[in-house]
Every structure is written in C-alpha cells, then in structure tokens.
Amino acid sequence: MVKRFSLPNPYTNRAAIRSSNHFFGRELDLRDIYTRIAGGQSVMITGERRIGKSSLLNAIGFSREEYELDPGFGFILLDMQSIAGCTEEAFVENLLTLISREMGIALPEMGRRTLEDAAERIHSHGRRLIIALDEFDVLVWNEKISPEFLVVLRSWTVRHGFPFVVAFREGSIDRIVSDEKFGSAFLNLFGSVYVGPLREEEARELIRTPARNHDVEFTDEEVEMVLDIAGYFPLYIQIACYHLFEFKKLGKTAEEIAVQLPRSFAFEASPHFEYMWWRLSPREQEALRWWVKAGNTEDMAAEKDLLMKGLLIEERRAIRISCSLLGEWMDKWEAPAKTVRQTVRDALLM
C-alpha cells in the first residue's frame, strides 16, 4: 500500500506550464488569440509578472487542435531570455533552426537572406507559421538588435502572412513605443491581449482538479479559504494549494489548517505581492489603501486598473480585495526599519 505521505504534490510547479494536462482556464484569451491569428493579425500579450503569459504562449502551441485552428499552421516558440544579448545574426539563426525543425524543411544557410527562402518553402507546402517570442522586452532592450531590424521582421511577417505572438511585462518595451520612427511602424501590426487573473470558475477548477486527480478532495470550506488568501492569481493558487495538499496528506484537522495555511502561504507569497505593490502607481496604491480600510474607493479609474491586475476581484456582482492578508502586508511594506520581506515574514509568522 502506498502511504499517504508519499503522494506527489501536484502543485509544485512554479514555472511556465508546458502541457495541456496541467493547463487550466484562459479559454477567452485563447479564443481571442486564435481568432486574430486566423485573420492574419499578430498579437502582443501583456500583463504583470508571473501572471501566466509564458504558459499562455505555450498553450497557443499545444491547444491548436482543441480550438480547431487550421492544421496548416506550424508553431515555433523562442524564449528571448535563452539567447539574451545575442546578435541579429544569432537571433536569425535560432529562428531558422526552429522553423526548419517544425516545418520539416532543409535550409542551406542560416543567415538573414535565408528568411525569404524559408518562407517560400513553407508556402510551397501550403502551410503557414506562427512565431511566438517570449520575454520580447529582452529582444527590444538588446543593444545588439537595432530598431531597423525589427522593421525588417515586420516587413517579412506582413509579406508572408506569418503572425508573430509576443509576450512581455506591461510597460517593459517603452523604448520601442516611444521611438517615433520605428515604434509605430512595428507595433501597429499587433492586436493586444491583456492577461489578468483567472475567472472565478477557472480558479476553482485549478484548486480542485489537480488534487482530485490524486484522490485528494478539498472541502468547500478549504476552497473558499484558498480563494480568500490567493484570489484568482494562478501562481498564488498554486502556492496555497501546495501547502493545503501537504496538510491534507499529514492528516491535519480543519482547525489546524485554518491557522497554518495563511501562515505558510504568507511566507512564500508575500514577496510576490510586495513586488506587485511597488509596481502600482501612487494613484493605484492610494485606491487600494481605501479598499482595505473602507471597502470602496471614489477613484473609479484606479479601481478599474486594480480589477484588471487582479488586486481587486469581482465575485457574484460584488468587488472585494483579492487577498485578505493585504491589509497587514501593506502596513509592513511601508516600514523602513528592516527589509520589507523580513518585516512581513516576522509579523505574520510569529
């Protein structure tokens, strides 16, 4: 008999999801992206750090059949962090290597001039190509990559109908956006998809399904506890469910879980929330303070932004703070004496 403590924990992953078995939600985002791709439009995916942009990029590849995208589309994905600091020639070589492998075509050379040859060979097979670039801001900020080169890529993708799908953190490509000569010429090619928190039903599925697949059932009260401290953020749900799953394996009582889960979650998740806090504008921070204190704010524009980013969530036609621990954390984040992380952890883990 397999002992309960030896059960693998299905909530350990903190990296991008790479298979459909572990991917939950994002149905509306995927439908939007596939609609744009089928119409020949490139797509930029933006959102906050660790919200699931890379997982969504991977899903574009492994969900094509499920969403009935034309099977003639090939898909390649290049993580720009893996070739950070590369030259234009190295970027093209990596791109062509992936194209050759995905489309099953032999390419005699791997230089920029071969891009045209590769496109013609793809067309000769009656196929098209989706090119996904993760961490696109790394490419934009690479001093070895000129703005002119981005215009060359734009011209190539328009000419051959190969949509780009790029993902980056919101606000991280201001360099190209502010460039009057090259920014608009490149970016007007793209439709925009903002990746925010999961929808409520998607969050509940992410909480229940992995545990259920391992014959562990979370109670309704436990699910609500996870939603109370983690909101609809995929990463935070993973963190909370990891600890909940461990407590269930150890046979903890409901009372013990109610006390220990928020503490364990706080220790691991508070640095991520802290990062989000300092990414907010002063206006958004002030609106969030009002929500914590009074349960509302008069700044409707800031409220809309906080909803989009997931720090406020709409649930059954009512708005609430995404994480019940935020009020305690916000006081500590503004304390100057210790490092913020240590102050938060000391206060919550006493």
Automatic annotation (TrEMBL):
SUPFAM superfamilies: P-loop containing nucleoside triphosphate hydrolases
Domain of life: Bacteria
Domain Novel STAND NTPase: from-to ranges: 19-229
Protein name according to UniProt: AAA+ ATPase superfamily predicted ATPase
Organism: Edaphobacter aggregans
Lineage: Bacteria, Pseudomonadati, Acidobacteriota, Terriglobia, Terriglobales
